[in-house]
Write a structure and sequence with these properties.
The protein has helices at residues 4-14, 19-26, 30-38, 46-55, 60-65, 83-86, and strands at 74-76, 109-113, 127-132, 140-146, 149-157, 163-166, 173-175, 180-190. The chain is of the alpha+beta class. Helix 1 packs across helix 3 (30-38) and helix 2 packs across helix 3. It holds the Pfam family HTH_3.
Amino acid sequence: MDALGPRIKQLRIAAGLNKAALARQVGVSDVTISYWESGAIKQIGHERLVALSQALNCPLSHLLEGEPNRPSPLYLRSHLPLPWNEAAHKGIDLPLELIPGQRWDGDCHLLTPGPGEEFDFLRQMDLAAVAPTEIFRQPGLYLVAENDKLCIRHVAQDPTGQLIFQQEGQQDVTRYHSGMRLTAKIVALWRHEPV
C-alpha cells in the first residue's frame, strides 16, 4: 500500500475533484486528504477506504492495488519469430462469452499487424486473440508459417481429412505441404471501425 497516496491523488485528479470536494464526500478535512496523498498518514480505516472508492468512482481493489497489468497487443509481422516468442510475454485470459463456438486451452495473446504489415483477414489496427497451437482444432482462421513467412489463412479439412488453406476472397485452395505449419488459432477478431 506504499503507492496508495499517489494513487488517491491520481484518481482524484482523474475524477475532476479538488481536495476540498473529495474531503466533503469522504467526511474528512482537506488537510487529511493532503496527508493521505503525501503518505504522511499511511493507515486509512476500511470505512474511509470504501468512501474514497465511492467518491473516486473506482473499485476498492483498484484503489488498493492499482491498475491491473493490462496486456498490450503484440505486433504481428510477416516473418518469424512468432511475436510471443520474441520476448517474455504473458498470455491473457479471454472470457468464453467473447468467443462463442471456439474451443482451445492454454495461452491466448492479443495481436495487431505491425506498422506497414498486411495480412489476409486482419487489417491495420484490427485486434486478434490467438491461441498458439500446431494442431488443427476446428475450421477457422489460423496463423500459418509457410516457408518461414507468416500469413493468415482459413483452414478446413477436405472429405479425406487433408488440411486445405484458403486466402481471403479466393475460391482456390492450397493443400497442406511440408513447408507449412499451423502456429496459432485465431479465436476472436475485432475490426477497427474508423470514427
